[in-house]
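User: Can you predict the 3D structure for this chain?
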Amino acid sequence: MKHFDEHSTRSALQLARLVPALRDAFAGEAKVPPRHVHAIEAGADRGTVLIMPAWSDAGFLGIKTINIFPGNSAHGLPGLHATYVLYDAHTGVPLAVMDGNEITAHRTAAASALGASFLARSDARRLLVLGTGRVARLLPAALATVRAIDEVRVWNHRPEGAQALAAQWRSEGWNAQAVTDLEAAARNADIVSCATLATTPLVQGGWLAPGSHLDLIGSFAPQMREADPACFAGARTFVDTDEALQKAGDLLDAIAAGTLSRDDVQATLAELCRGTHCGRADDSERTVFKAVGSALEDLAAATLVWQAAQQEP
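Assistant: Here is the predicted structure, written as structure tokens:
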């Protein structure tokens, strides 16, 4: 049984390869049972444990265990920790254990880019990122695989975190700046991408420009939300999987407020990748992509890591 640490897992997950791998995975066939969700209480600390299995005819079975503790920021720790175990789907033999944090972050950013490849305007170049965590850090590189991103702005509830991330991005060659005026930044963005663990809405619908694309990839549970119900009014909404309609607080709030109905949801990533829905119709419409994550994405990413190792001399 092989062990892929943080570095070896990350090095195999080049976004230019992962985004097309996710496209192929969603266009294909796989078994993805509903995730198991468990609330954890340890004294005053609260967390959530997700157990996410998936398997496919390609011969791989994977199970991710992911622990989400939003209060970790107060301890200087990431809010998410995960492990991934890959098995032979024909025999159940364990093949590898991988760094689940890297798999989760990369596949989430890649899913954002995959959604944007269908939903963001072809000339979209100005990106606003909300959040500074593992996923947020990958978003410019991920979205640049599908759109010519040349201006990046970042906002965080802790301004010093945004400033540090903007400086890191500049060192990597990005035209990046931290912002404190979230409304002004959102009004000026072609793509607004939210990768936070927020429980109260951060983005307001009135801030979003015609033709913009709102990317909601942080929240994954009914009590979490990154966008207010007005963000869905007058927009065309897409989801990663149908599970989003049961799990996403953003969608549930909008449905309750009457700015979105379940029938208004246009398509899933599988339908977009299979070509049964075209995605964006014109440059003037607003689009929203809501993702809660799928074990299919984890399996596609883990398969890339495994296959890369098999090709090494």
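The two ends are 18 Å apart (CA to CA). The CA atoms of residues 205 and 230 lie 4 Å apart.
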